[in-house]
Amino acid sequence: MHGKTVLVTGGAGYIGSHTVVELINAGYDPIILDDFRNSQPWIIDRIGEITKITPTFHKVDCQDEIAVKEVVKNYPNAIGLIHFAADKAVGESVEKPIQYYQNNIGTLCTVLSAMKSFGIKHLVFSSSCTVYGDADTAIVTEESPVKEATSPYGDTKITSEKIIKYNSDAVEDFGSTLLRYFNPIGAHPSSLIGELPQGVPNNLMPYITQTAKGIREKLTVFGSDYDTPDGTNIRDYIHVMDLAKAHVKALQYLTNTECKSCVTFNLGTGKGTSVLEIIKAFENVNQLKLNYEIGPRREGDVAQIYANAEKAKEVLDWTCEYTLNDALKHSWEWEKGIGE
Ligand code: UD1
Description:
By secondary structure, the chain is α/β, with parallel strands linked by helices. It has helices at residues 14-25, 42-51, 65-72, 90-95, 97-117, 152-170, 204-213, 240-256, 275-286, 310-316, 324-337, and strands at 5-9, 29-34, 56-59, 80-83, 122-128, 139-140, 175-181, 183-185, 219-222, 234-235, 237-239, 262-267, 273-274, 292-295, 306-307. The strands form 5 sheets. Strands 3-2-1-4-5-7-12 form a 7-stranded parallel β-sheet, sandwiched between helices. A two-stranded parallel ribbon has the order 6-15. Strand 2, helix 2 and strand 3 (56-59) form a beta-alpha-beta unit. The longest helix is centred in the N-terminal third of the chain and has 21 residues, at 97-117. The radius of gyration is 19 Å and the shape is globular. The relative contact order is 0.14. The mean pLDDT is 96. The chain binds uridine-diphosphate-N-acetylglucosamine. Residues 88, 90, 128, 130, 154, 183, 202-204, 207, 219-222, 233, 235, 275, 298, 300-301 line the site of uridine-diphosphate-N-acetylglucosamine (UD1).
């Protein structure tokens, strides 16, 4: 390929694979570093089916500094690195805190060290709205305070953001974006790639689709006594393809402006949707009935949070193109095809 080279750690994962598709569509040459611990090698072939270009990949554990440097040294002209490789399950992080710190902080340090060694100056980082914790307002801007984390997972995101900020100050000409995702759902419209949760899903969307498919008996709605209009939690659900496009825009922003600082962006739709609204919309758009019951609250859940994403609109020229119904349809189409 002849596009500009971009390194993508965790590029076979859920958000990573969709971003690789969008990078290829935008004319970039993405190089994937992934050890497939939470993804599948065939996702790479599927990216090839969608884009007609199969990206180069290196099977490498991003905690392994020597191995990562062996790969990165082959791409001295890479214009940037998008770092997805990390563990992401909140509950698991409470049970395995050391794994989460070792993997999420370890891989970040390895990646930053490799970038320094080989002169790669632009980093796009996957952060999360989890950094806002139990926010004082339902709608949050990038200026809203970062709150004490309630899980090791959340703490690794807060700590990673700090490490990247310090690194931006310390390394000459280093520019970075911290992308705070709200709730990614949906799949590529082709149904060739999507989310592949391991074991029982923690997140709402895969739990819904697996219940609809009959893999799970019923969905439990975690609490209906919150201070929200229908009593269930409100979140900002964003189509993974819109999220993927934001990464391309963030990379372009870093390179076009020759950014030398660390810039934070919320990535959400700006709209809040309750759990019951999601269930109803999923049933309507896919013409099915979902088996669900109201259960007790889940520890650590906040009543409502959604994004003010004006900064991403103004600075990155990015807005969401897909609707919630698109996302709910694409999630279901993808789920139906898994295992075929
Ligand atoms: C969670 C994490 C967040 C992380 C994100 C990654 C917590 C507290 N937060 O966000 O840090 O960045 O995943 O995607 O875990 N729900 C049900 N029944 C279910 C599953 C979920 O009612 O079986 C509800 C939850 O109570 C919540 C909503 O669905 O109100 C979304 O839950 P989930 O998909 O787990 O995302 P978050 O908790 O918002």
